Amino acid sequence: METSDKLAAIRLRSAQRRDRIHAHRATGHADAERWDLMYWQDQGPEARLSALVAIHEDVHKVELARRKV
């Protein structure tokens, strides 16, 4: 893949990621928890499962990295 193709692919993924990002500036812990709950309740089962799998994969990577130290 050429450099220009790689940059175009990165720009496309970045734009797609920006479209998916949901942000909220919480006023406190209770507000953050309320927003988080509403966000995840709005997501479908596939999105929730995908997030859970990603978290498990990240934890596994961290555990492997700790063992190498």
Write the SSE topology.
Layout lengths: L2 H18 L8 H14 L2 H24 L1
Q: Your description of this structure?
A:
The N and C termini lie far apart (35 Å). The protein is mainly α and 69 residues long. It is extended and about 50 Å long. It is 81% helix and 0% strand. It is built from three helices and no strands. The protein has helices at 3-20, 29-42, 45-68. 0% of the residues are buried.
Q: How large is the share of residues in beta strands?
A: under 5%
Largest sheet: none
Give the distance, in angstroms, between the N- and C-terminal Cα atoms.
35 Å
Calculate the mean pLDDT score and round it: 92
Shape: extended
How many runs of DSSP E, i.e. beta strands? 0
Question: TL;DR of this structure?
Answer:
This protein has three helices and no strands. The chain is mainly α and 69 residues long.
Essential attributes:
about 70 residues, mainly alpha, 3 helices, about 80% helix, extended
